[in-house]
Write a structure and sequence with these properties.
heterodimer, A: alpha/beta, Rossmann fold, 2 domains, 7-stranded mixed beta sheet, 12 helices, 13 strands, 42% helix, 16% strand, B: mainly alpha, ABC transporter involved in vitamin B12 uptake, BtuC, two-stranded antiparallel ribbon, 11 helices, 2 strands, 3% strand, globular
């Protein structure tokens, strides 16, 4: 009996390890969407014609579990939809490999090693966070993998230290001045507190927005916080009563909501303004602001079919998913071009060589997608939303 | 001065949560000389139990019951659920290893910890939950302490933590169950020879310690801390640090350690760099282990020679 119980305990522990360890899993893309979107048709044109034998696996690195899982799941589902649409339009056989990074640099690094060792993977969508991109950079450089992020916005990522890295969203060098201009000009703020979470992402956006605010004559106070912090009452106690705006740099929207609630609790008048990491339904305090690197695609005609297909299959979405659709398109098109040129399914080198030639005309984000020499997208801009009484983010700029 | 007092109050409130977690650690260690490393995850599950009780009763803004009754039920369900969970963990993961080496139950505890995190992920999804207690508690009412407003949730945490410590102290020192716990702590074989049911005593110990963790989970939710499957990791480490700081095995020590840790964190945030607060908590743990291994109120261990 004792032996059986001991075995049971061992099994319990083994199950726990398995459950936490099996973060990555390969899945074929689920059934194709009923109608391939206009966007997919555009993909066909850009890829240079159908090549039915073209296939390959694309890894999607996203926070599928953890505090940012709602974002990660949305990214994964949009990537799956992009692959489905592309396969339907081109008769290709591309597949998705799911890689859970939990928005953690260490986890992303571990996952990147697994991806690098799997030669079936020809390109990567992601990772989501700037700190994760820094973590996977050396591995992907050695493996010769091209990777396209749909949400990493730290400007330093494209300074040449991460060859093979591209992104379809603007950088914090754009976000900082955009947010600062809105805070200083439209909101008329004189005193701003910047809560700087000590991550690559938090440091990047805090620095960018602080510089722009200072240049605009706004008095800026910076408060650094650790990523592991659970309560912000002590931080809010440091916010002076005459503060107009508290700018937060979290990557988990629930933390921004917590700060907003703590401010109300403390009876302070400051409005919370969240960077793009806060763009989620979890951040719902009326009157707060949040910026995003992508527009609400529901108002973009070129995105109508994709938005409808996604909503029918997966439900509501925010601003993190649509850029992931576009990021997946860039990899798929590059693979298809390489496949068409060589007459055989593309390998990593083929995809990497084709990525700089990306040209998606009339993307679902409302503009064309082309990369500059560094791997940044040309002409991208940030958008600003205000949270209404129902807790919904409404575009204000 | 008001700023100092505001941060002092914040520290006492953080400390109240740490103290409740530390009480669970210290109770189990005191009786079994065993570190229940899954205790933080029981706290996490307690926070979830409280959250789902609240949503089952209509949610934060549309409760079908009067708010005090809803909060009471949240505590009852969280403490009861956590107690049952703790008893289950003891029965299946620790009891079979009670007579084995000290390392075996420790490894089992680590496995249980990971298992509970994964179970929470599967059962409750990875979505971060907020109690949104500002929707059902008037956070701008409460009592004024030298000009510093202490809201209802904060009062509940401090009064609840101290109240539960007093109840626990009374239970351990003034009841038959408490005498049985102390007897088991001294010598399990001798306790059996004196007619004490060791298994039953240990079950009660785990049940009570886990119920305290469940109460801490609800309290942290009411304080607007986010709830997800990983909150137990740091909370458990902080609770453990508080227990060691106060003297593991000592009930007043766990309370003292919790409050000291919370106040230290708040003061570091207030006057040094907020990013150092976690570092300092664990630095204190290292210093205490080096300088005073038995903690502030711990007794020297007697070793049979």
């Amino acid at each position: 009996m004792k032996k059986h119980v001991a075995l049971g305990v061992s099994g319990l522990a083994a199950l726990a390890l398995l459950a936490t360890g099996c973060a990555g899993s390969s899945t074929s893309s689920e059934s194709s969407t009923a109608a391939a979107s206009e966007s997919a048709a555009a993909s066909t044109e850009a890829s240079g014609g159908a090549a039915p034998e073209c296939s390959g696996t694309i890894a999607v690195m996203a926070p599928l579990t953890g505090g940012a899982a709602s974002i990660g799941q949305e990214q994964l589902n949009f990537a799956k939809l992009a692959v489905d649409d592309f396969n339907t339009a081109n008769g290709s056989m591309y597949k998705v490999f799911e890689s859970d990074t939990q928005l953690d640099a260490g986890q992303a690094s571990t996952q990147s090693t697994a991806i690098a060792s799997d030669t079936a993977i020809i390109g990567v969508v992601g990772p989501a966070g700037s700190q994760e991109v820094s973590a996977v950079g050396p591995t992907f450089k050695d493996a010769g993998i091209g990777y396209v992020s749909a949400s990493a916005t730290n400007p330093d990522l494209t300074n040449g230290s991460n060859p093979g890295f591209f992104r379809v969203v603007p950088t914090d060098a754009v976000q900082g001045p955009t947010d600062a201009d809105y805070i200083a000009t439209t909101l008329g703020a004189k005193n701003v507190v910047v809560i700087e979470e000590k991550t690559d992402y938090g440091k990047g956006i805090a620095s960018s927005v602080s510089e722009a605010l200072t240049a605009a004559g706004v008095n800026v106070t910076s408060i650094p916080v650790a990523e592991s912090k659970k309560s912000y009452d002590d931080i809010i106690a440091k916010v002076a009563d005459d503060t107009d705006v508290v700018f937060v740099t979290f990557q988990v929207a629930a933390k921004s909501q917590q700060v907003a609630q703590s401010l109300v609790k403390a009876g302070k008048k400051a409005v919370v303004f969240g960077s793009d990491g806060s763009f989620s339904a979890d951040f719902k305090t009326p009157g707060a602001y949040v910026s995003a690197f992508a527009p609400d695609i529901n108002g973009i005609p070129a995105a109508a079919a994709v938005a409808e297909a996604f909503t029918a299959k997966y439900g509501k979405f925010g601003t993190f998913g649509p850029p992931t659709y576009v990021a997946a398109q860039t990899i798929l098109q590059a693979a298809q071009r390489a496949c068409t040129t060589s007459g055989a399914s593309a390998d990593r080198a083929g995809v990497l060589a084709e990525l700089p030639n990306t040209n998606i005309a009339g993307s679902i984000l409302g503009g064309d997608i082309k990369f500059d020499a560094k791997g940044d997208v040309d002409g991208a801009k940030f958008y600003i939303f205000k949270i209404d009484e129902a807790g919904t983010a409404v575009t204000v700029q | 001065m008001e700023y100092f007092l505001e941060q002092l109050v914040n520290g006492v409130i953080f400390g109240g949560v740490y103290a409740l977690i530390a009480l669970g650690y210290t109770l189990i260690y005191g009786v079994l000389q065993f570190l229940n490393l899954a205790h933080g995850e029981v706290y996490m599950m307690g926070a979830f139990f409280g959250f789902f009780t609240m949503t089952a009763l209509g949610g934060p803004s549309m409760s079908i019951l009067p708010v005090p009754l809803m909060i009471l039920l949240m505590f009852v369900v969280a403490m009861g659920g956590s107690a049952l969970l703790g008893i289950g963990i003891e029965r299946f993961a620790y009891r079979p290893l009670r007579r084995s080496s000290r390392l075996a139950p420790l490894i089992s505890a680590l496995g249980v910890s990971l298992f509970l995190q994964s179970a929470a992920l599967l059962l409750f999804s990875s979505k971060v939950r907020l109690y949104d207690s500002n929707l059902f508690l008037n956070m701008q009412s409460g009592i004024s302490f030298f000009g510093v407003m202490i809201d209802i949730a904060e009062i509940m945490v401090v009064v609840g933590a101290i109240g539960l410590m007093v109840v626990l102290w009374f239970l351990v020192n003034r009841t038959n169950l408490g005498r049985a716990m102390r007897a088991v702590a001294v010598d399990q074989d001798a306790a059996v020879m004196n007619g004490i049911d060791v298994d039953r005593t240990v079950v009660w110990t785990f049940g009570i310690a886990s119920a305290l963790a469940g109460a801490a989970g609800v309290m942290s939710g009411l304080l607007l801390y986010p709830v997800d499957q990983y909150i137990g990791v740091f909370a458990g480490l902080k609770g453990f640090t508080a227990a060691v700081l106060g003297g593991i095995g000592s009930i007043p020590g766990a309370m003292l350690g919790g409050f000291l840790l919370g106040i230290t964190e708040a003061m570091v945030t207030a006057y040094l760099n907020p990013t150092y607060s976690d570092f300092l908590a664990f630095f204190i743990l290292v210093i205490v282990l080096l300088v005073r291994p038995r903690g502030l109120l711990g007794r020297p261990a007697l070793v049979k020679v």
